[in-house]
Amino acid sequence: MILxxxxxxxxxxxxxxxxxxxxxxxxxxFNVADFPTKSSVSQVLGNTSDHCSIxxxxxxxxRASDVTAVWYRKPDPPKMRQDIDPDEREFxxxxxxxxxxxxxxxxxxxxxxxxxxQVRISSNKLKQLRLAARxxxxxxxxxxxxxxxxxxxFVDSIDCKVVYKPIxxxxxxxxxxxxxxxxxxREIYTTLLDESTIDAGLQRLSMCPALLQQHIEKALDIxxxxxxxxxxxxxxxxxxxxxxxxxxxRGKDPSALEHKAHELPPHVERQCLDLVKxxxxxxxxxxxxxxxxxxxxFLEINPNGxxxxxxxxxxxxxxxxxxxxxxxxxxxxx
Length: 334
Description:
The protein is an alpha+beta fold. The chain is built from 9 helices and 18 strands.
C-alpha cells in the first residue's frame, strides 16, 4: 500500500495515482486537513502491541502496518472546528499536531519520499548553498546578515548588481496564531536592488536579517526535477518578458513562458543527483540558472517543489517516474 499524504486539491497526486493504477499498485490518499473533523486516527499502544489506523473521509480504513511507502507531498495543516472556545485553540492545535506526528512515527517502517525531518532540514537555503558549493556547483556570492556594515562591505565588493531573496517564506500576511490560515497581503520575490533600495534595506537589518546575492546575468532559468536516480531538466525562457527577467515566478502566468526539455552537461546532472542524495532526499525540485557566461549556477532546491506544469509543457514523464519509484519502494500489487 502506498500512502499519499497531501491535499485533496493536489492534482499531481491524482496523476500519480493513475500511474500507480496502471502498475497495479494499491494506494490511498490521506488529506491531513480532514483531521480531526472528517477523518480519524487511532493509535493503540502497549508492551506487546502497537496498532495505528486511519479512517479517511468516506469510511475506508488504512492500517499503518499495511503501508510500505509514503509520498509526503503537499499536505495542508489539520483544521480545527470553528466552534472551539478561543482559550482552547492553542491547546487543541498542539494536541492535533502531536497526534499527526505520532501517526508519522507509526509509519516509520515505510520508505518515505521524502522523510519529514529531511524536508525540514534541507529546506534551509543557506545549508543548500553551502552543500552545493562543497559538491563543486557554481553558486552566486551570497551574504546573510543583520549587520549593516558587513552588508555594505559585501555590496561594495561585488562588481555587479545585487538581488535580495527571502529565505524563510514568500508571503507577508496576518493571522492570530498557527491554527489560522494566513491572510496573505503580499508575495515576496527575488528583487534586483538599486542604490536607494540598498540604503533603505540596510537600515532595516537590525529588525530583520536579509540575504543578498550576486545577480547572475541569465540566458535561461533551468528547473531540474530529481526523482530517485533520474533527473528531468527543463529550460524556462524567462528573459523574454521584463517582469520575469529576475524571477520567473513573477509573471502573471509563468506557464506562458516557453519551456523546453534541456540536456544538462553530464557533470552538472551528476551534481544535481548528488545534491539530492546528500540531503537524504529522493525527490527535489532544483532551480539553476544558465548564465550568459555559459556556466550553470545553483540557486536553491525545494524538497516538495511543484513540477506539474513542467510535465505539461515539456512532456517529461515525471509522474510516471514518481509512481515507479514508489512502487519499487515496496508497493504491493492491488
